[in-house]
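Saturday, quiet lab. Running sequence design on the structure tokens for the scaffold JK sent over.
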């Protein structure tokens, strides 16, 4: 399964990359696995609750598998 990770700061995209696992996202963004899992599952996280002007908005979505054509 692949994941698309996008990081926005003040609606400006600063990161946009496809990863093979959530662990790769953890290593690249220096976040814990639990933080990344919560973000990908759309659960509550500290980035959404932060009122700081430059807080990042992190969006992680699953990339659908390509179907093999017969």
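Result came back. Writing it out in full:
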């Amino acid at each position: 399964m692949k994941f698309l990770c996008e990081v926005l700061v003040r609606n400006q995209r600063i990161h946009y990359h496809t990863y093979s696992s959530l662990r790769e996202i953890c290593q690249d963004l220096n976040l814990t696995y639990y933080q990344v899992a919560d973000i990908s599952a759309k659960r509550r996280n500290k980035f959404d609750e932060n009122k700081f002007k430059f807080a990042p908005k992190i969006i992680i979505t699953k990339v659908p598998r390509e179907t093999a054509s017969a």
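Notes for JK: Residues 6 and 59 are 5 Å apart (CA to CA). Residues 22-29 form the longest helix (8 residues). Ask whether to fix the surface positions before the next round.
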